[in-house]
Structure formats: structure tokens, C-alpha cells
Automatic annotation (TrEMBL):
Quaternary structure (record): Heterophilic interaction with FAT4; this interaction affects their respective protein levels.
SUPFAM superfamilies linked to this entry: Cadherin-like
Name of the protein described by the UniProt record: Protocadherin-16
Record has Mitochondrion as a keyword: no
GO BP term, example: cell migration
GO molecular function: calcium ion binding
Upper taxonomic lineage: Eukaryota, Metazoa, Chordata, Craniata, Vertebrata
Record localization: Cell membrane
GO CC annotations on file: plasma membrane
Keyword Transmembrane helix assigned: yes
Length: 1273
């Protein structure tokens, strides 16, 4: 008895008696449940044994299913009531030995399963399969049956009989029928047909002409046999009654009747009786008599009894004539006594066969004698002359004689038993008497067989379709050959013709039944349509044979995964390459054919996420192209991608692609800051480092290497510039240069020859030895500000003091560290404020350099300020790659399996970005999904925790909420639709479990887009394509009614899917449909299922939408050309190129430009608020569709003031003095005059304050601060 185990487990054999321990202790049960819930260690054990084994037979050892390294001293057994485990098996819970508790009967139960749990929590799933043995004979429903068939029923007419059933399965069930006894003259034959329910039905077929008058009944013994070895057979008796039809006319026993009567015969006297017989029976053989008055006795002198045939006198007769004077004469009559013909001839027939029976070989040649006939007649004279004649035989036999005493019957024409196997002959011997007497003898000549006919197949060519993946021994088809000969000459045996190009080693054939089965594994890829030649040979001597070709079409099964030409692709592309440029083509092949070999390519990132937006992949050709212009300097300089090739059956392979973005010299060096101010003591020694200027170039390599030079005319003999580092050093003594400012202009150029658009200016303030730079209270400051504050919010205060200790003479500015201008510093107070909205996710901290200046020429001091932008919980969790997904889950999925892992992210940080997951809803039709699925709060893993049943709950809609840790808490919801796939081992079989198809949105209604196909699992049928077609034609298709199916329909007879409702990718981009195929009439029967995944592809049916139709921006005047200060943003609900947006200005503007990819607006030149304080731009955003769609918006730009103008007096030219004349002796407080000055700046920058300078003036006169009104002190 074989015991097999599968998986990673060891095998054990145990023998000896077993002790049945079948107990549960509640405490142990609870402990085991806890262990099972907390462990992930599982084992499996699959066992087999034949049925009908004696009680106590060892089935197997549970320990063979333990994972490697595990042992157990005690097992707890769990099974359900009604499984038969407790009644049919003995399980020793200590040793794990499983034995039978009684003889097992596969026909009552063919499978047992239970779970064994060890004390350490290891669970072993034990499955026991009971194998079939040939322990049942085919049984007819009735032991005896009666069948009535009219005579002369046409040859080939079928009469259905009830089939024999066999409780065994597969080859051990009924395989054929035969007529064992009673088939006289081979009057009948049997034909069979295997039905969808696997029953082998039979028909009784009329094989010869039936004649009730020759044989009125047949007692047949029918025999059914199975495919076991040896065979087992059952029989039944079939009484066939041949019913009569009116196929014979009545026949008189004489052709003429004579009677002489007297004219004086009294009326009513009987004259004679006629007699006629009819070989039919019943009413068909009842003879009635009458006189034909049209041809005789119109005057009705005679009448006839209708039933007896007796003729009587009806009217008086008068022999004389009827003249007026009749004449009378007399005559004497002489009577001679002659021999009366009162003896009929006698015949003796001797048949000339070996055994003296009436038979002749069909091979007999014309002229060969069949029988000898001798005739005699005891009468005298002419009455003894006998004439012999032969009737019947259809001209195949003739009669000859030489002496009219001995007659010979001989073969006159060639005989063919297969055309007719018997002839009914009648020999008649007639004498010459009056009336003549005759004798006759009827007999049947049987034509014996000669092996002159080879077996003939009912089809010259067979064709069958089967899946390529079937087990050896699987049914393919049944061929049938018939031999018209009989006996051994007609006994047919089948074999497969061996040949070099034949695939006979893939198949085998039963020599008796002609059933072809698989003998080895099939391979569609090596030969999609193997063929074999079947030879049918009879048992004649010599044997005759014929052949038929069997073409087997293999249905490709998706058993090959796509194979890439390379597992790794390395490509490079220059930045700024135009969008749509294709630079790499990946290719894969699949050895499968048809849809299973059709590949589609998808793009993903190396981390398993969505494809990066800069690239697209042609799903058919595998061409990798850019979807947008690449900028290596602002984006990534390399991409690690994955390309997935998926075939039509869902199998896939992955190749890695590394894309390097090659730098081009598309960036100029840029100084930041542009103005450098530094103070230097006049006593500094040559070689002292003064300041370092810095220009950055976003390019790489040589293109990003910056060299510095002084602009001609912008240098100084006191300083030198390191061209590589940008460090400016003192080259000679500054003696005599105290209280002066030395300026330098520095240019920058990269290795590709591009120069900085704006040069840097360096102002070196040379101070005397006694002048000290302002000193900050702290060398470094640390401030924190929330990202949610308003513009102008104070962040912190820096303070510095001059040598005099007076801080009001110190002015502050941001010298570096804030290129985007997020902050400002009050020049007088040192208060740092926000200037732009802050975003922690964009910038979490800045390091500013604050510069303090005092004196004239100014001396400078610096301090570092670290500003941390703290996070606000302003971002909800987002799911990757989308907030919904659908999947197909087989109902046999084991509990504990992780079916999906939800990925989510939160742009916030700290607690605000920490996510947890909760299953809040698990809607299911007819079931509680929250008892079936669970989600791990930390990882987002969705796990199966309950059993699945397609019949009870075919679909679950799971709602998982991701929450962050902020306050208030933000959340998002993820929807996971789980479709359960039925595991119906008996239902129709689809050619694939998962179909994948793409449909464009806005596809017209009623468009057909996919034809699914299913075959009955018995579709291998009884040979030929007709069986297959019948098996598929009896299948009806429908969609399982759920939310996804509402927009689609299916034609129930053909399996064509069509669009029923309009599709909109922006509303729903993927549908998961379940197609059900049901065999049987009226959609009632077994059901199989497959899944259709419909992906809705994008059409450019949405225009871009700006986040704001009008955007208000502000920009400082005097900013360098190219400075960005704001952006417009837009979205497009389409996808791919249809959603790729580019920005432009409707009208070219000399002051502003817009980045076509980001929408950032920047200056083209420096602005002057005093010339124009506001602008209005029309922005156009356009998608990449064909044709493109666009939207427009307006950007309102306000120019912010900078204090770039000094006040000017209005009294006249600036170089001329204002002369006020005053008379002496005027009292104090006298107004001498008013002077006015104006400043074109605005706000504080344009507010003018007045003061007097000079000792003579300040002691005598006073000026009011708001107006220069001079009064006498």
C-alpha cells in the first residue's frame, strides 16, 4: 500500500497495533487554540490507501508531516462531525499512527481530512485519499426487459436501452457492451455513447431485415463490462418481439375450382367451398370472401358465405334454353373410371455441406452445388410426371437436372455474406394431374463467412481537443472500427502504429474498446497538434487491417512564463531630450501560443511602486520613452526601473532597467549672494583671507566646475582672487587706505564656457585700527517657527552692538542662507519675520547668516541663525499606488495567508506622519467580512482569518482606514474588493482562469471586446470534433451580478462580452468581472468560473484645471533676472501623456517668463516699482493629448518696494545750496522757512526725516523731524 507525502517533510513508516485515543480536555483545547493562533509553523501530510483493506490496516504516521527538526509526544486531533474520521479511523494520539477502524468503501466516502496539533503549537493538516479498486460489477437497472419492434423496421433504426451503472470510477466503470446470446442472423448490434454524466448509454440497432413470418421473437442476453483487469461483467435478458405488419396477401389453395350441379338442385344447396390462407396474424391474417360481381354472376344465381367460403345456390336454375318452342334431346353419357390423382409427389433433399446443414461459404464460386433433390410420385401415368421448381434466393441459386428425377441446387451468382447472410429457398414438386398435386419444402441457406472484409473505422480521420496539462491515463477519445465479417473474422483489436514522426509514445490505446488515453506528459510547445495512426486488425487467417488518423489538438495551457532577452538593461539618455523620445526597447518571448503567448509590458519603479512620471513604456512593443523633458539638475540623475512582461494568462517576469541621465551644459553658474560686504582692518597683513565668493552650477563634471575671474576694470591691486576656490586674499598693505571702500567685480565661468548671468560685487570696507566690528550677543541663534504661521510673524530677534556699546547705530541684513526669501530682518531692530508661507515638507530648516553694520565706512559683524520650521499636521495619509484595489482570491486559500499589503505614506513628520491601519468595514453579501479578514495595525497587511466559500459569499468589500498620529487626527480610506474564485472540480473548464483586456474609455455601447470559452471536463468525449462541439454548445455563460458587472453584458450562448454602460476612466479605471459557465439545459448544472480584468485606458476627454483661475503674486523690485517668485499649478484628470501639462504665457512678456514644466514664474530682467507697480499675465496650460486641450488663467503680479532711492530736495538742483536770510534779533521760535524733500519709494522707504548738521547750526536752529522747518532756538 503506497503512502505518499508532499512538501517539506520527512517520511516515516510505523507498524504494529495502534491504540485509539480520541479525547478532548477543555483545558488542553484552550491551550492548543492559543498556540495555534500565535504560531505560524504548519505542516501537511497527504496519504493514500486502497479501499476494502482489512480493519487495522496502517494508513500512515502523523509525524511524517512535521516540519524538519520538529518532534511531538502528543497530538490533539480536530475534525468536524460527519467527516467520518472518528468512525472510520483509529488515531493514536501518542504515536500519531493512523489505522483503519473498518473496511473503507470509496463509494461511500473517498476522502478524510483532519488537523493534528502538537503541544508546541505545530499544526499538521492530514489528508487521506481512498483509492478505487474494481470491486463493483456493471449492473443493469432491470434483469429482464421486453422490447417490441415492428417487422421490416429499417436497418440502422435505434432503440435506446437503460445503461448499466458501475459504482467504481474512471476506467473501472462501465466501458462497453456486447450481445452474448440469441442474436440469430446477427439481426441486431449495439452502439454506445458516453454522456456528460459519464454514463455509457447504449442503443440496440437493427442490423438486418426482420420478418415476423420467419422469426417472431429473439431472446437476447446483453453483457456490460468494465475496464478492470480482469474485467467484471453484468448481464440482462432482453426479449425482442417482432410485431406483425400486413405484408402478405391471402393465397387460395387452388387456382381453379370445378363443380357440376343439377339444374334441379334446390335453392340454398351448398355447391363447393373455397379456401385461402394469409401468413399474417391477427386482423392482418383474417380472410373474408366475396364474389366479384363485375366479372361473374351478375344475376346473383350464387351466393358465398363471407367467412367460410361456401358457395350456395341463390336462385333456381334451368339448363334448357328459353325459346318459345324449346327443343329437347337425350344423350347417353359413358363414364370411364380413371386414376384419380390422389398422391402428391415426395421429395428428399440432401445438403452437400460438410455437416449436412443448409449452408454454403460466401467464397463458393458460381456452379458449386449446394443440395441434391430426389422426387417420386406413386400415381400412374401422367400423374407421375413431376415438375420441380425453385423459388427465392434472389437469383443467387438455380436448379438443374439431367433425368427429372435428381435435381441439383447450385450457386448461380457470387455470394457476399456481408450483404446477406441467409437466403430462404422453397422447392416445389408439382405432378401433372388434374388438379395437380404438389409438395414443397422450404429451408434457409446460411452463408458462412470468409475473412474478406478488413475492419473499417466509422471515421477515416478523428480530431479531438484536450488541454496540454493532463495526467497520464486521461481519456482522449474512443475510436470504433467495424468488421462485416463474423466470428473471429470480425473480432477487432486496436493498436497504435509506431513511427519515427509519430507521437505514439505520448498515447496508448485499449486493444478491445479503442479508448485512447495519454501515456506521458504532453507539451504544446514542442508539438501543438500531435497525431497518431490507429490500426484495427481482425482475427482472421490471414488477418486484415485498416488504419485511421487521429489528430489531437492540444489546448495551450499557460505553463510558460515570459523570458526577457536580458535580465538587466542599462541605458543612458541626455537631459533635456524632448518628451516622447524612445531610447530603449525591451523584449521578451513566451513559448505559449495564442493569447497565452501575447505579451504586454508595464513599467514600475525599482522599489516596486508606480512608474516614474518621466517615462512611458509601450505596452505592446516594449519601447521605453520619455514622457517629459528630463532635467538632471533639478531631478534625479539616474532611475532604477522594472519592466514586467505579462502574458494573456497572467504569468509574468520582471527585468531591471537602469537609466542614467547624461548631463549637458544647460546651466550657468549663479552667484549667491551677489553682493558681498566685508570690513577689513587697515593694519591687516598681506595674505589675510578676506572673503570667499561662491557661484553654483547645477551641471555635473566639467560642466559644473566653476572658475572665478575679476572683471576687467573691476579688480584691485590690493587683492588677489583664487580662480578655483573663489577666495579673495589681501596681497599688499592697506597703509593709507583707512576709512575707504574698495570694490571688486567677480565673474564666474563653468567648464563648458557658460558665464554667470550676473557678476558678484565685493565691497571691502577698510577701517582704522581703532574701529571694531559690531559684535552680536550670540555667536549663533536658534529659533523655531511653525509652518502654519501667517506672513510677517516674528520668529526671533538678533542683537549686536558697536564698540561704543550703542546698538541703535547698528543695522541688520540677511547676507546669505535664504535664497528664496522666506524671511526678512528688520534693519533697525534685528527682528526676523516670515516673508512667505512656510511648508515644513518643502523646507524643514534654514541656516541664515545675519550681518550687522555700523559706522562710516561701515564695519561688519556676522552671526549664524538656525531656524527650524516645525511640522503641522496638514497632510492626510495617501495610499500607494491608489486608494482602491481589487484582487481574486481562490476559496481554497489557507487561513493566515497575507492576501494584500496596504502601502501608505504621510508627508508630515514625527507623530504627524506615523500611520496606523484599522479595518472599519468588510461588507459581504451573506457574511461577516470582519470575521473573515483582519489587518495589522502597524504594517497594513491584510490577512485571511476565516474560511472562504464562493457559494455563500462571492465578494467582500473591505474598507481600511489609515490614521496619522497628529492632533487633530487626519485619515484616509482604502477600499479593497476581494472576489472569491470558486474551486468547482466538476464544472466547465475555462481555457484560462484570468483574462486581461484593455478598453478605451468612451468605448461605444454594445461593443464586443472579448470572447471567453469553456469546455465541459468530459468534453474529451467519445471521439471526434462533434463530441467537443456538443460539450461546448451545452454551456451557457453569465456574469456574476455584482457592482463591477453592472456596466457589462455577456452573450449566454457564445461567451462574447460587450459594453453595456459608458466607461469613464476618471470615475473607475479597473473592473473585475466573474464569468460563470454552467453546463446543462436551462442553466441548471455544474458551474465553472473565470475572472476578466478590464483595464480602462485613458482618452483625452478632460481639460486641464488651474487650481485658481486668478492668482495673486508679489515680487520685489531689483531682483536678479531669472529669479522665481511664484507659480501657477493645474491638474488634469486624464493619465499619461494626456495628463502631462505644459505652461506658457499667452503673450510674450519682456518682464516675465514661465517654466513650461513647473509653472514657476520668474523675472526676465530687474523690475522697477517706481516705473510700474503691477502686471497682469495670461497663463495657458495645455495637456499632451492629441488633439491637446487647454485652460487659461490670470496671474496678477504686484511689485514690492525696495529702498532703492535717496530723498531729494525739491528746491532746485541738488548741487545748489538753499540760502535763507534771517534778520538778527528775531525771537526764539521764529520760523525762518520750510524745505521739502521727496522719496519715490513707498511706505517707510519713502518717509523722509529731516535733521541739521554742523555745530553752528544745531546750537542756533532747530528742524522739525517731519518737515525741514527752521526755527530760532
Amino acid at each position: 500500500m503506497p503512502i505518499t507525502s508532499k512538501g517539506s517533510r520527512r517520511r516515516a513508516w510505523v507498524s504494529g497495533p495502534s491504540k485509539r485515543l480520541w479525547r478532548w480536555k477543555p483545558l488542553f483545547y484552550l491551550c492548543v487554540l492559543v498556540v495555534v493562533q500565535s504560531t505560524t509553523v504548519h505542516g501537511a501530510l497527504e496519504l493514500q490507501l486502497d479501499e476494502e483493506q482489512p480493519e487495522g490496516t496502517i494508513v500512515g504516521d502523523i509525524s511524517a508531516g512535521l516540519p524538519p527538526g520538529e518532534t511531538a509526544s502528543l497530538y490533539f486531533i480536530s475534525d468536524h462531525e460527519g467527516t467520518g474520521v472518528g468512525s472510520d479511523l483509529n488515531i493514536d494520539e501518542t504515536t500519531g499512527i493512523i489505522t483503519t477502524a473498518r473496511r473503507l468503501d470509496r463509494e461511500q466516502r473517498d476522502h478524510y481530512s483532519f488537523i493534528a496539533v502538537t503541544m508546541t503549537g505545530v499544526t499538521i493538516e492530514v489528508s487521506i485519499t481512498v483509492n478505487d479498486i474494481n470491486d463493483h460489477v456493471p449492473v443493469f437497472p432491470k434483469k429482464k426487459a421486453v422490447l417490441k419492434i415492428p417487422e421490416h423496421t429499417a436497418v440502422g433504426t435505434r432503440f435506446s436501452l437503460e445503461p448499466a451503472t458501475d459504482a467504481d470510477k474512471d476506467q473501472l466503470t462501465t466501458q462497453g457492451y456486447a450481445i452474448r446470446e440469441g442474436n440469430v442472423g446477427q439481426a441486431f448490434r449495439l452502439e454506445t455513447k458516453r454522456a456528460a454524466n459519464k454514463a455509457l448509454y447504449l442503443d440496440l440497432v437493427v442490423n438486418g431485415m426482420l420478418d415476423r413470418e420467419k422469426r417472431s421473437s429473439y431472446s437476447l442476453v446483453l453483457e456490460a463490462f468494465d475496464g478492470g483487469s480482469p474485467r467484471r461483467m453484468g448481464s440482462m435478458s432482453l426479449e425482442v418481439t417482432v410485431t406483425d405488419i400486413n405484408d402478405h396477401a391471402p393465397v387460395f389453395n387452388q387456382s381453379r375450382y370445378h363443380a357440376i350441379i343439377s339444374e334441379s338442385l334446390p335453392q340454398g344447396s351448398s355447391i363447393l367451398q373455397v379456401f385461402a390462407a394469409d401468413e399474417d396474424e391477427g386482423d392482418n391474417g383474417l380472410v373474408l370472401y366475396e364474389i366479384n360481381r363485375r366479372q361473374s354472376d351478375p344475376d346473383r344465381y350464387f351466393v358465398m358465405d363471407i367467412k367460410s367460403g361456401i358457395i350456395t345456390l341463390n336462385r333456381p336454375l334451368d339448363y334448357e334454353d328459353n325459346a318459345s318452342h324449346p327443343e329437347v334431346t337425350n344423350a347417353f353419357v359413358t363414364i370411364h373410371v380413371r386414376d384419380y390423382n390422389d398422391n402428391q409427389p415426395t421429395m428428399t433433399i440432401i445438403f452437400l455441406s460438410e455437416d449436412g446443414s443448409p449452408r454454403i461459404s460466401e467464397g463458393a464460386q458460381p456452379g458449386q452445388y449446394v443440395a441434391r433433390i430426389s422426387v417420386t410420385d406413386p400415381d400412374y401415368g401422367e400423374y407421375a410426371n413431376v415438375n420441380v421448381s425453385l423459388e427465392g434466393g434472389d437469383g443467387k441459386f438455380a436448379l438443374t437436372t439431367k433425368d427429372s428425377i435428381i435435381y441439383l441446387i447450385y450457386v448461380d451468382q457470387v455470394l457476399d455474406r456481408e450483404e446477406r447472410d441467409s437466403y430462404d429457398l422453397r422447392v416445389m414438386a408439382t405432378d401433372s394431374g388434374t388438379p395437380p398435386l404438389r409438395a414443397e419444402s422450404s429451408f434457409t441457406i446460411q452463408v458462412t463467412d470468409v475473412n474478406d472484409n478488413p475492419p473499417l473505422f466509422d471515421q477515416q480521420a478523428y480530431r479531438q481537443t484536450i488541454p496540454e496539462v493532463v495526467y497520464p491515463g486521461s481519456f482522449v477519445l474512443q475510436v470504433t472500427a467495424r468488421d462485416k465479417d463474423q466470428g473471429p473474422n470480425g473480432d477487432v483489436r486496436y493498436s497504435l502504429l509506431k513511427g519515427k514522426n509519430s507521437h505514439s509514445d505520448w498515447f496508448s490505446i485499449d486493444p478491445v474498446t479503442g479508448i485512447i488515453t495519454t501515456a506521458a506528459a504532453l507539451d504544446f510547445e514542442s508539438e501543438p497538434a500531435p497525431s497518431v495512426t490507429v490500426v484495427a486488425t481482425d482475427n482472421g487467417r490471414p488477418p486484415l487491417s485498416s488504419t485511421a488518423k487521429v489528430d489531437i489538438v492540444l489546448q495551450d495551457v499557460n505553463d510558460n512564463t515570459p523570458v526577457f532577452s536580458s535580465d538587466f538593461y542599462n541605458a543612458s539618455i541626455k537631459e533635456n531630450t524632448p518628451a516622447g523620445t524612445c531610447f530603449l526597447e525591451v523584449s521578451a518571448t513566451d513559448e505559449d501560443r495564442g493569447s497565452f503567448g501575447a505579451l504586454s509590458y508595464t513599467l514600475g519603479s525599482g522599489s516596486g511602486g508606480l512608474a516614474p512620471t518621466p517615462f512611458t513604456l509601450d505596452k505592446k512593443t516594449g519601447q521605453l520613452c520619455t514622457s517629459t523633458s528630463l532635467d538632471r539638475d533639478e531631478g534625479l540623475d539616474k532611475f532604477d526601473l522594472t519592466v514586467t512582461a505579462t502574458d494573456g494568462g497572467g504569468l509574468s517576469s520582471v527585468a531591471r532597467v537602469h537609466v542614467s541621465v547624461v548631463d549637458i551644459n544647460d546651466n550657468r553658474p549663479t552667484f549667491y549672494p551677489v553682493l558681498y560686504t566685508v570690513s577689513l582692518s587697515a593694519h591687516s597683513a598681506p595674505g589675510t583671507s578676506v572673503v570667499k565668493v561662491t557661484a553654483n552650477d547645477a551641471d555635473a563634471g566639467e560642466n559644473g566646475r566653476v572658475t572665478y575671474r575679476t572683471v576687467p576694470g573691476g579688480g584691485s591691486m590690493f587683492f588677489t582672487l583664487n580662480k578655483d576656490t573663489g577666495v579673495i586674499s589681501l596681497s599688499r598693505s592697506l597703509h593709507g587706505k583707512a576709512n575707504t571702500v574698495i570694490s571688486m567685480v567677480i565673474s564666474a565661468e563653468d567648464g563648458g564656457g557658460l558665464a554667470a548671468p550676473v557678476n558678484a560685487r565685493v565691497n571691502v570696507s577698510v577701517v582704522g585700527g581703532s574701529v571694531a566690528s559690531p559684535a552680536f550677543e550670540q555667536a549663533q541663534y536658534f529659533f523655531t517657527v511653525s509652518e502654519g504661521v501667517l506672513r510677517g510673524t516674528a520668529v526671533g530677534v538678533v542683537r549686536a552692538a558697536a564698540k561704543t556699546g550703542v546698538s541703535k547705530d547698528v543695522f541688520y541684513s540677511i547676507s546669505s542662507g535664504d535664497p528664496d526669501g522666506y524671511f526678512t530682518v528688520d534693519s533697525a531692530s534685528g527682528t526676523i519675520r516670515t516673508a512667505l508661507p512656510l511648508d515644513h515638507e518643502t523646507c524643514s530648516s534654514l541656516d541664515l547668516e545675519i550681518q550687522a553694520r555700523s559706522g562710516s565706512p561701515p564695519a561688519y559683524g556676522t552671526s549664524r541663525v538656525r531656524i527650524t520650521i516645525s511640522d503641522v499636521n496638514d497632510n492626510a495619509p495617501t495610499f500607494l499606488p491608489s486608494s482602491s484595489e481589487s484582487l481574486l482570491l481562490p476559496e481554497i486559500t489557507k487561513m493566515g495567508t497575507v492576501i494584500y499589503r496596504i502601502q501608505a505614506t504621510d508627508k508630515d513628520s514625527g507623530h504627524n506622519g506615523q500611520l496606523s491601519f484599522d479595518l472599519v468595514s468588510a461588507g459581504a453579501a451573506g457574511g461577516n467580512g470582519q470575521r473573515t479578514f483582519g489587518v495589522d495595525r502597524g504594517s497594513g497587511e491584510v490577512r485571511l482569518i476565516g474560511g472562504l466559500s464562493y457559494e455563500n459569499v462571492p465578494r467582500y468589500d473591505l474598507q481600511v482606514v489609515a490614521k496619522d498620529g497628529g492632533a487633530p487626527q487626519l485619515s484616509s480610506t482604502f477600499t479593497l474588493v476581494v472576489h472569491i474564485q470558486a474551486q468547482d472540480a466538476q464544472g466547465p473548464n475555462f481555457d484560462t482562469l484570468t483574462y486581461r483586456v484593455e478598453l478605451r474609455e468612451n468605448t461605444p455601447l454594445n461593443t464586443r471586446f472579448l470572447q471567453v470559452r469553456a469546455l465541459n471536463r468530459e468534453a474529451s468525449g467519445n471521439g471526434g470534433s462533434s463530441a467537443s462541439s456538443s460539450s461546448s454548445s451545452s454551456i451557457s455563460y453569465r456574469l456574476r451580478p455584482d457592482g463591477d458587472a453592472a456596466g457589462f453584458g455577456i452573450m449566454p450562448d457564445s461567451g462574447w462580452l460587450f459594453v453595456r454602460s459608458s466607461l469613464d476612466r476618471e470615475v473607475k479605471d479597473m473592473y473585475l468581472l466573474t464569468v460563470l459557465a454552467t453546463s446543462g439545459p436551462g442553466g441548471v448544472g455544474r458551474t465553472g468560473s473565470a475572472t476578466v480584468r478590464v483595464t480602462v485606458t485613458d482618452e483625452n476627454d478632460n481639460s486641464p484645471r488651474l487650481s485658481q483661475d486668478r492668482v495673486f503674486l508679489a515680487v520685489r523690485e531689483n531682483l536678479l533676472a531669472g529669479t522665481g517668485f511664484g507659480r501657477v499649478s493645474a491638474t488634469d484628470r486624464d493619465a499619461g501623456l494626456n495628463a502631462r501639462l505644459t505652461y506658457r504665457l499667452l503673450h510674450t512678456d519682456r518682464h516675465f517668463q514661465i517654466n513650461s514644466q513647473t509653472g514657476e514664474i520668474s523675472t526676465r530682467l530687474g523690475l522697477d516699482r517706481e516705473q510700474q507697480s503691477s502686471y497682469q499675465l495670461v497663463v495657458v496650460v495645455q495637456d499632451g493629448g492629441t488633439p491637446p486641450r487647454s485652460a487659461t488663467g490670470t496671474a496678477h503680479i504686484s511689485v514690492l518696494d525696495e529702498n532703492d532711492h535717496a530723498p531729494s530736495f525739491t528746491h532746485g538742483r541738488p548741487d545748489r545750496e538753499l540760502l535763507l536770510q534771517v534778520m538778527e534779533g528775531l525771537p526764539s521760535g521764529t520760523v525762518l522757512g520750510t524745505v521739502t524733500a521727496k522719496d519715490p519709494d513707498e511706505g517707510e522707504n519713502g518717509t523722509v526725516y529731516y535733521s541739521l548738521s554742523g555745530e553752528c547750526c544745531t546750537s542756533t536752529f532747530e528742524a522739525l523731524p517731519s518737515t525741514l522747518t527752521c526755527i530760532i532756538l
